[in-house]
Specification:
4 domains; elongated; 40% helix; Heat Shock Protein 90; 497 residues; alpha/beta; single chain; six-stranded mixed sheet
């Protein structure tokens, strides 16, 4: 079988190399005039990377480069090694579809950069959408209550508000879709991805005293995942490790792939929660400058960076979003002057394939909540007030709570007092999933309804979707809330029989 990815060797290779050396250009300093050309080329052709390359026996060396940290790559990864086989201009319409270049690290890097931009936009859009949906929930819920007023003028105004709220909800969904990249799930060997990360990072280690090592098990480690997302996570961590290594001193980046069942987190779990099923542990450590203890809790926050103008503050925020949505977790341990250890727990089974159904059935009767004590947990006062009013109108006896810790204390005090708990997800302290786990430990048959501004995101997370008996998105109408409550109560009864 012909290996199309390996550049052919020219018949006049000896003469070509002699002519190249006669030019005395290899390994010379950058030329500002050529740097202008590469920047213009990147801008003109709307590409992330533009290069002026020279190819010797073993490598492709860049006299000028734009959008790439490495000063050279191996000849095997060289586009130019293919182009010099002909006098014609080589045009590659789509490198990702060309068998010569589809697996080329430079092509994969450009795909990763595009994916990272999409993820960054998605992260920002998700945060905005969460806050907007909370506002819309309060507005739409109040309008729903006004529809029951025995005044035609008031009801007409309420219907107009409801219509505007539905339009706003549609706009928020479009905002979320702007940055949403549907994961391309398939069975991948995590060893191959980590080896590719090593091949991408190694050429960018400009200091001769710096090195990257990868420790992989002999047997395949298969996960149903999006290989681009996995690579994006590990590549981000490896590049951050590279940037933390001290110049002029020995520096080491170590990437290892382990069975998560045999290990406990080396530091605090700062993203997600440890998967309950089979998982791989991917550890990225370095001997760099380390992270200040006061900064540890902030490193995954959007726009937080210690690189000054050289950093965007979005890399680790994107990493956190990918791992969290995959149902995994990230732990971090670091000491100033000694380096950092990032540990990624990646579930080996897809969160999407395992999530249970939470479809909301139509309410069979309007008094499903009549006389029932319902605990309402949300850190947004306007949302809590609206839900309480809707539940009262449905005949329930709601207990409002703005703090998830207070809600937990209320159930601990009298576990049998509550017929249903309705909780938000994104809350300070205990989030919705952590609260649900503790409530299940206290009372296994307590119906739990997740009412979230971002329901799809939470349903994708392994180990979290099954914590709730029903999931409902904000904003929710009175009918939808009652139907979801009925579904949650029925589901709790069924799972504890």
């Amino acid at each position: 079988m012909i290996d199309l990815a390996t550049p052919p060797v020219l018949l006049d290779e000896t003469q070509r190399l002699a002519a190249l050396r006669a030019l005395a250009v290899l390994d010379t300093p950058p030329d500002p005039a050529l740097d202008v050309i590469t920047r213009l080329a990147a801008d003109r052709f709307d590409t992330e990377i533009a290069l002026i390359s020279l190819v010797d026996e073993h490598r492709q060396w860049f006299k000028s480069r734009h959008g790439l940290d490495a000063c050279e790559t191996s000849r095997a990864d060289s586009f130019c090694a293919h182009s010099i086989t002909s006098d014609d201009v080589m045009v590659v319409p789509d490198a990702t579809a060309d068998p010569r270049f589809a697996a080329n690290p430079l092509v994969m890097r450009e795909q990763l950069m595009l994916a990272q931009r999409q993820e960054a936009v998605g992260q920002l859009a998700s945060g905005i959408a969460h806050d907007f949906n909370n506002l819309i929930a309060a507005i739409a819920g109040t309008a729903s209550l006004l529809e029951g007023v025995a005044d035609d003028h008031v009801r007409r105004h309420a219907l107009r508000i409801q219509s505007a709220a539905q339009t706003a909800t549609g706009l928020v969904d479009k905002l979320l879709a702007l940055g949403r990249r549907a994961p391309d799930l398939k069975l991948v060997d995590l060893r191959a991805i980590l080896a590719s990360v090593r091949d991408l990072v190694a050429p960018s280690l400009a200091d001769a005293q710096h090195r990257i090592e990868v420790d992989l098990p002999p047997a395949p480690v298969l996960a149903r995942a999006d290989d681009t997302e996995v690579m994006q996570v590990i590549l981000n961590l490896a590049l951050n490790a590279r940037d933390a290594l001290p110049g002029g001193k020995d520096g080491r980046i170590a990437i290892s792939l382990l069975d998560a069942a045999d290990h406990q987190p080396a530091g605090d779990v700062l993203v997600g929660s440890l998967p309950t099923g089979p998982a791989a542990l991917i550890r990225v450590s370095d001997t760099g400058c380390g992270i200040d203890p006061d900064d540890l809790a902030q490193v995954f926050e959007p726009f937080y960076t210690r690189k000054g103008d050289a950093g965007t503050g979005l890399g680790l925020a994107v990493v956190a979003g990918i791992v969290d949505n995959a149902g995994g977790a990230i732990a971090l341990f670091s000491r100033l002057g000694e380096g950092a250890v990032f540990e990624v727990w990646w579930p080996l089974q897809s969160a999407v394939s395992e999530q249970p159904s939470h479809s909301i059935v139509e309410a069979a009767d309007a008094d499903v909540l009549a006389g029932k004590a319902v605990l309402v947990v949300d850190d947004n006062p306007a949302v809590v007030d609206t839900l309480v009013a809707m539940l009262e109108q449905a005949g329930a006896e709601p207990g409002p709570c703005l703090d998830s810790a207070d809600a937990l204390a209320a159930v601990v005090e009298d576990p049998q007092a509550w017929s249903l708990v309705i909780t938000d997800y994104d809350m300070p302290g205990l989030n919705g999933a952590a609260l649900a786990r503790q409530l299940r430990d206290i009372r296994a048959d307590l119906p739990l309804l997740l009412l979230s501004a971002l329901p799809r995101a939470h349903q994708r997370r392994t180990g979290e979707a099954e914590l709730f008996d029903a999931v409902l998105g904000k904003p929710a109408s009175m009918d939808a809330l009652v139907a979801a409550a009925r579904t949650a109560i029925a589901a709790a009864r069924k799972r504890t029989v």
